[in-house]
Design a protein that fits this description.
The chain is an alpha/beta fold. The protein is 49% helix and 15% strand. The structure holds nicotinamide-adenine-dinucleotide and magnesium ion. This is 1-deoxy-D-xylulose 5-phosphate reductoisomerase.
Length: 392
Amino acid sequence: MIRVTLLGATGSIGQSTLDVLARNSEAYQLVGVSGHQRLQELLDICIRFQPFYASVPEAAANPFQQQLRDAGCRTEVLAGPAGLEQLAAEPGSDLVVAAIVGAAGLLPTLAAVKAGKRILLANKEALVMSGALFMDAVQQHGATLLPVDSEHNAIFQCLPDHFASQGLAGSGVERLLLTASGGPFRGWSREQLQSVTPAQAVAHPNWSMGQKISVDSATLMNKGLELIEACWLFNLPPSRIDVVIHPQSIIHSMVSYRDGSVLAQLGNPDMRTPIAHALAWPERIHAGVSPLDLVKYGTLSFEAPDEAAFPCLRLAREAFQAGGTAPAILNAANEVAVTAFLERRIGFLQIPETLERVLQLSKVCPANDLQLLLSEDQLARQLARQIIEQFH
Ligand code: NAD
Ligand code: MG
């Protein structure tokens, strides 16, 4: 049995992971879960899967433990941020699915890295924020990092086995082609984007996802975060990565080789495929995903991203190039701006505007210390809140 800890069990990735685990229950045992909101769902998960541990926020710990007991469930509650890190590093698990959204996932994901786990990374913000520090810790503690983000998982599947040891030149890889659906506002002008609502922004044409990543997909910030994620995961500069809009979301990304070959990974847009791939790697398991019917789709199309209407892609590229704390600052400002947009305190176009101004006003420093990174994250959040206040 492979013992699995699932951080962010109540989220969209969490639900997809539980579905794959349930289909393969002879091979996988869920030993730990975490949840932050929607604790009734976490309770149902505990009753169904009977994990050893469940991590919840401090204030909810005692009543949650009582509810578990009342339900005859022996799951032990771990409380607050320390409990979450303890859960991530628990010696009784073989792999950790990092599916918390945003910077909140950094410390628990790093705890799993430091415990040398096999980590299935969905929480891209953790890697974007801490970049070199994160990758150094992976090396130092002998952890294994497997990408769950569909694009990075696709690239991982299209790279040769020796890529990690031989790098670009040694493996003949020229470029990565990161595909993007373009989100719900593909083809829209800045003028049209001015008045879009949160409900329109979270209605993604192809994927069903959590709210934050849905807004990120609509602004193209998700692709910006993924560009940075790819630079760290595959150790290459942004100049080697092209973003291609592919509205059908059937090709999940591609690798372009020296000899002109381009390898792509295809499949229906369903996160259970990359999750199942990373769970079983290097083997293959059932994911519950229906077979790809190419004839039904008929046409696969491609276009260039409109960086004038969607500046987030450029902002992410610039932040990566600035290095140090810049990506963490960008990520923090984005989390604040997305929340403000969802609460209807700012308009859609003010999301990139906030990011641009926070980046302009922040001092970028080297990001070789975790405490410093966390305090820069807090500073960028404060600054973003001030800028958002001034919009009124
Ligand atoms: P979601 O909002 O559906 O779920 C987020 C999870 O994180 C929930 O379990 C929630 O309880 C937990 N959480 C939220 N705030 C927390 C906090 N402060 N402390 C601890 N836990 C907290 O999000 P999602 O769509 O499942 O995305 C999760 C991650 O996976 C994100 O980083 C996202 O970018 C990435 N991802 C998601 C998809 C997708 O299809 N949903 C695809 C690729 C990558
Ligand atoms: Mg993705």
